[in-house]
């Protein structure tokens, strides 16, 4: 496709250069990484967190790039087209180059619950008879795929390639997670959205966003920039940041649909929490439905409501959506019951790796725990350091036994990360080796206790330095439970 057609009318600041010979250049592919460039491709020079991509224009040209997109002029053997936001150019050009997307796409943002909402929305659509997919932290799930993922919101070129593949595989509906990094870096800018959702805002990624307001503003790009005017915006009604989300949706001309106890579109009239399910009375489309949601964790009711709101906003009748809630399966590693001891103590794996999530998950299991709540967790390296003492405090306040261990130390010294948590967790035990920490915790379990292994959820690796070693909380919990049952000494 010609560069001019990839740009369309979206980049008036480059209209002059695109009207000339540079606009006629035929583009065979796109990349923001000079190392991935091949003959005939466009190179987008992005200012990143570690490097400035414009340093690599010559490398890209040497590998066969025919044009570069950048935010400032550069001397090069290939034309350099200057635009205000090269990341946005890359995303929009990728959407045009790959062409197809599932007809109905929704995106959900918020600090916690995105993966669960994307999964539940996919499940409700599938129940309603649609070929549906989800894209996010746990990877890609569709009728034909179950691919492990790495980023919550993929890089725009990969994302658009994936959407075109899904469309060609017959997927008509896709729900995706919009992370604050993804939104801030314009990774979703070429996605054609039918509806958008917001769950909640808590503390996370304060290493990347300077203030909580700017973190919220990044999330709200989904509403004020990406959602087309008039699109439904499904907003969880009971969060501290609900009003802000509503204000942004109003100012952006979206159709506001609140869900929750204070919800107008879906109103939670009553909910009873049981150990493995919740019974909710939901007012939807003029009727009251009593729904058994077969998931542990009261926060899952909020996620189920946002998902039902998104499904209904894209054509699923209320009665079908409510019936589908009774069949939901939790996303992998989200308060997932992995096993129990012979005395009936339950062991869960959960993905809480930020303060609000840890607080929610520990509070959720408390009412059903007649014994002690035992938690094993750590904090990731090269990520928001401020959350470490906060999570230490939460664990100490809400659990009876706290075991601090490693969770993807990455380039940091693991002992330093643990000590920053331990500083706010008096009485906690520190066991560096995560497998040993889990085994120790399982060994402590008595009748009535609940174990939460938090932070890694579905993850299949432990990243130490630059190496990711195979590691799964599920596998380690199962092994420890089995050895305990067989009397193998720890
Ligand atoms: C901090 C961050 O978000 N980094 C993302 C960002 O990279 P960057 O722009 O900072 O890259 P950089 O290393 O500074 O390099 C700048 C540019 O020079 C290019 N380059 C570099 C070297 C070279 O030889 N040639 C070359 O062209 C790079 O390809 C890049 O385009 O843009 C890249 C392309 O989209 C992402 O892959 C990369 O994600 C990294 C891998 C990452 O770990 N991201 C995490 C923090 C993330 O995005 N997480 C979110 C949130 C999860 C959650 O909600 O909890 C997610 O969506 O997963
Ligand atoms: N609605 C919610 N409110 C508070 N905590 C939640 C909520 N939903 C999930 N959690 C907690 O957050 C963890 C992660 O849930 P989920 O993966 O659905 O969220 P996410 O927004 O996709 O997270 P991430 O940004 O890490 O991918 C869960 O394991 C649970 O501990
Ligand atoms: N998408 C999140 C995942 C964190 C998971 C946790 N296990 C950790 O490594 O901190 C991030 O990159 O911040
Ligand atoms: Mg997620």
UniProtKB/TrEMBL annotation:
Keyword Cell division: yes
SUPFAM superfamilies in the cross-refs: MurD-like peptide ligases, catalytic domain, MurD-like peptide ligases, peptide-binding domain, MurE/MurF N-terminal domain
UniProt keyword annotations, A-Z: ATP-binding, Cell cycle, Cell division, Cell shape, Cell wall biogenesis/degradation, Cytoplasm, Ligase, Magnesium, Nucleotide-binding, Peptidoglycan synthesis
EC number, as in UniProt: 6.3.2.13
Subcellular location: Cytoplasm
A GO BP annotation: cell wall organization
Record GO terms (molecular function): ATP binding; magnesium ion binding; UDP-N-acetylmuramoylalanyl-D-glutamate-2,6-diaminopimelate ligase activity
Post-translational modifications: Carboxylation is probably crucial for Mg(2+) binding and, consequently, for the gamma-phosphate positioning of ATP.
Binding of UDP-N-acetyl-alpha-D-muramoyl-L-alanyl-D-glutamate, residues: 34, 152-153, 179, 185, 187
Catalysed reaction equations from the record: UDP-N-acetyl-alpha-D-muramoyl-L-alanyl-D-glutamate + meso-2,6-diaminopimelate + ATP = UDP-N-acetyl-alpha-D-muramoyl-L-alanyl-gamma-D-glutamyl-meso-2,6-diaminopimelate + ADP + phosphate + H(+)
Annotated residues for binding of meso-2,6-diaminopimelate: 383, 407-410, 455, 459
Modified residues (N6-carboxylysine): 219
Family: Belongs to the MurCDEF family. MurE subfamily.
NCBIfam families in the record: murE, PRK00139.1-2, PRK00139.1-4
Function, in words: Catalyzes the addition of meso-diaminopimelic acid to the nucleotide precursor UDP-N-acetylmuramoyl-L-alanyl-D-glutamate (UMAG) in the biosynthesis of bacterial cell-wall peptidoglycan.
Protein name as catalogued: UDP-N-acetylmuramoyl-L-alanyl-D-glutamate--2,6-diaminopimelate ligase
Source organism per UniProt: Rhizobium soli
Taxonomic classification: Bacteria, Pseudomonadati, Pseudomonadota, Alphaproteobacteria, Hyphomicrobiales
């Amino acid at each position: 496709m010609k560069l001019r057609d990839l740009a369309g009318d979206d980049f008036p600041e480059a209209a002059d250069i695109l009207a000339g010979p540079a606009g006629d250049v035929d583009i065979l592919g796109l990349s923001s990484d000079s190392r991935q460039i091949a003959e005939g491709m466009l190179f987008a020079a992005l200012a990143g967190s570690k490097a400035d991509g414009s340093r690599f224009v010559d490398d890209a040209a040497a590998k066969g790039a025919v044009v570069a997109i950048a935010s400032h002029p550069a001397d090069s053997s290939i034309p350099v087209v200057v635009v205000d936001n090269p990341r946005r150019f890359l995303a929009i050009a990728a959407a045009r180059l790959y062409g197809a997307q599932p007809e109905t796409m929704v995106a959900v943002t918020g600090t916690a619950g995105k993966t669960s909402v994307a999964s539940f929305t996919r499940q409700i659509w599938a129940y309603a008879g649609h070929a549906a997919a989800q894209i996010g932290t746990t990877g890609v799930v569709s009728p034909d795929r179950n691919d492990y993922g790495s980023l919550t919101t993929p890089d725009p070129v990969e994302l658009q390639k994936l959407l075109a593949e899904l469309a060609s595989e017959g997927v008509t509906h896709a729900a995706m997670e919009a992370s604050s990094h993804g939104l801030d870096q314009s990774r979703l800018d070429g996605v054609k959205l039918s509806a958008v959702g917001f769950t909640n805002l808590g503390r996370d990624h304060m290493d990347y966003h300077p203030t909580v307001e700017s973190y919220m503003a990044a999330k709200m790009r989904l509403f004020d920039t990406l959602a087309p005017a008039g699109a439904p915006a499904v907003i969880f009604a009971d969060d501290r940041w609900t009003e802000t989300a509503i204000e942004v949706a109003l100012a952006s001309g979206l159709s506001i649909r609140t869900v929750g106890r204070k919800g107008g579109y879906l109103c939670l009239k009553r909910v009873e929490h049981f150990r493995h399910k919740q019974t909710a009375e939901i007012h939807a489309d003029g009727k009251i439905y009593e729904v058994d949601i077969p998931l542990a964790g009261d926060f899952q009711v909020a996620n189920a409501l946002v998902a039902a709101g998104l499904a209904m906003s894209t054509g699923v009748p209320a009665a079908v959506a409510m019936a589908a809630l009774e069949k939901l399966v939790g996303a992998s590693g989200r308060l997932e019951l992995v096993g129990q001891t012979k005395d009936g103590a339950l062991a869960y794996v959960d993905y809480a790796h930020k303060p609000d999530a840890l607080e929610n998950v520990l509070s959720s299991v408390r009412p059903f725990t007649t014994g002690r709540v035992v938690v094993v967790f750590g904090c990731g390296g090269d990520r928001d350091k401020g959350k470490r003492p906060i999570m230490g405090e939460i664990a100490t306040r809400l659990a009876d036994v706290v075991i601090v261990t490693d969770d993807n130390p990455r380039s940091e010294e693991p002992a330093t990360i643990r000590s920053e948590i331990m500083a706010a967790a008096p009485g906690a035990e520190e066991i560096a080796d995560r497998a040993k920490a889990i085994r120790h915790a399982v060994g402590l379990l008595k009748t009535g206790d609940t174990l939460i292994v938090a932070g890694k959820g579905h993850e299949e690796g432990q990243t130490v330095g630059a190496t990711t070693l195979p590691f799964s909380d599920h596998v380690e919990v199962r092994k420890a439970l089995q050895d305990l049952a067989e009397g193998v000494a720890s």
